[in-house]
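Troubleshooting: if your tokenizer reports a length mismatch, compare your output against this known-good record of 373 residues.
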Amino acid sequence: MRTKYMFGLTLTVLLLVGLTTIGRAQETKSFDVRKGENLSLKVNGDVKVESWSKDEVYIEVSGVRKANLEELKINQEGNTVFIEFKSNDDASFLIKTPEQFNLDIKTSGGDISCLGKYFGNINSATAGGDIKVEKVSGNVVLTTAGGDITTGDIEGNLKAATSGGDIKTGSISGEGKISTSGGDITVVSSNKSLSLATSGGDIKVGNINGDFSASTSGGDIFVGNVNGEAKLNTSGGDIKLAGAKGNTKANSSGGDLKLENLYGSVKANTSGGKVYVELNPDGSEESKIASSGGSITLLIPENAKATIEAVIKVQSKNDLKDGYTIVSDYKIDNYITDEDRKEIRATIVLNGGGKLISLNTSNSQITVKKWNK
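Known-good structure output:
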């Protein structure tokens, strides 16, 4: 009985597999093309595009039901090869093109891969899959409603957006604008301005040779050196910045701030963590550093021209005696313990004074140190 049962089960599986493949076709076509021409896809299914050295576009389509072959349209018009297929068949597309080619790829239900080196512009969009792009010398636009985005080095501008995944890129030589509603963002480096936003993950970036902005509602921000202005905001994590040569703004609702090697001015605020800042002020704007419940440490060079005003607020008069102090490597010109206002205040004037640097915290310590760069 068991032998008959196993035989019947195996036969049933084979019949099911056969039924899924019966009536499906594989279509192949090729076109002679010139370098710098275009490929346009509007399909449903997985798409893999590969670069090769031939002046030819090769197309292989699998999984199309024979009854739907009329809906598959592949043709060449002028300098563009077109592929269209709107059926819900579980189809897949393999295309090979010259390296010097422009790609416009849209699929309503699959993954997109652009493999190899491309010299041209790439525009890829999918409603339900991952996007992978390797090296590109050109402008790139990538959009997915439900997957991850991964790229190699991009020698051009990059725009990438996903509603439900992580984004990871190599180096970007042009401007970058990257956003995700539900994942992490990682960028190796950027040679121009870069803007990053995520509603639910961490942001990690190398060096940026331009202005930089980063925003996350639920993660940490880690950034290398920024050769420009830096605007960093998180609602639930730490911020660490290796350096910036422009005005810096950093805000966290629940983490520590570590801002190193800053030149210019800084506006830094956290509602629940420590603040560490290395600042060489250029005298252009005032700086404000604040924490609602953590210590503040400011490092500033001896040759800086600045006026530092530090304030520690406490909850009661008794807290004034609990060891909260303002400590400085530099001479403190004025130090007041104000029982009426329940605060400790100190003023430090460096090299005759300059633009104001205000330090404010509650029930914690403020320290000003010499920065020996």
